[in-house]
Every structure is written in C-alpha cells, then in structure tokens.
Design brief:
This protein is 84% helix and 0% strand. It is an all-alpha fold and 99 residues long. It has one domain. Helix 1 runs antiparallel to helix 2.
Length: 99
C-alpha cells in the first residue's frame, strides 16, 4: 500500500511540475507570438495601403507628367518606397535582434 501511495505522490508531483514549468511559459509564449503576429499583419496591411495610395496619387495628381511612355515611373517609385520601408525594418531587427 505504501508503495502505491508513493508512486501516486510522485505522479502527482510530476504533473504539477509539468504544469508549472512547461505549460505556464508556453501560455505566455503563445500570447507573445499572437500579439506579434497581429502586429505584423497590421503593419503589412498598413504599408500595402500606403503604397497603393502613393501609387494612385502619383498616377492621378501629377497631371500629364507620367503619361504615355512614362506611365511605368509611378510603379518604380512605389517599389522604391517599399524598398526603403523594408530596409528600415531590417535595420531595426538588426539593432534589436530577433530574441
């Protein structure tokens, strides 16, 4: 009897340890990852909308500057703006690191 009770106590202790040391930190990591994912999605949507607004503004508000053979220039400007945003984000990741 005493041996069965000892085994049950060890099993209960092991379950409590796993809950405390494994499941608790995983819940915290899950929240951290979900907030990071939500922020990343919001950032991507915002950048895409701003780039589309820039492209539309260049196409409509510049008059005849980009008409005819020069109609491709607003797209190049929008891609260059995207490259600047990506470079700024990569610089921030380089400063802070991923961890």
């Amino acid at each position: 009897m005493a041996r069965k009770q000892g085994v049950a106590e060890v099993a209960d202790l092991l379950k409590a340890y796993v809950r405390q040391e494994l499941l608790g930190p995983l819940r915290g990591a899950g929240r951290w990852v979900s907030m990071g994912l939500a922020g990343s999605v919001a950032l991507v949507v915002g950048v895409v909308l701003l780039l589309l607004a820039l492209l539309r503004a260049l196409q409509t508000e510049t008059g005849t500057a980009f008409d005819g053979n020069l109609s491709w220039i607003p797209y190049v400007i929008a891609v260059a703006a995207l490259a600047v945003v990506i470079a700024a984000l990569l610089r921030q990741v380089g400063k802070r690191g991923l961890g």
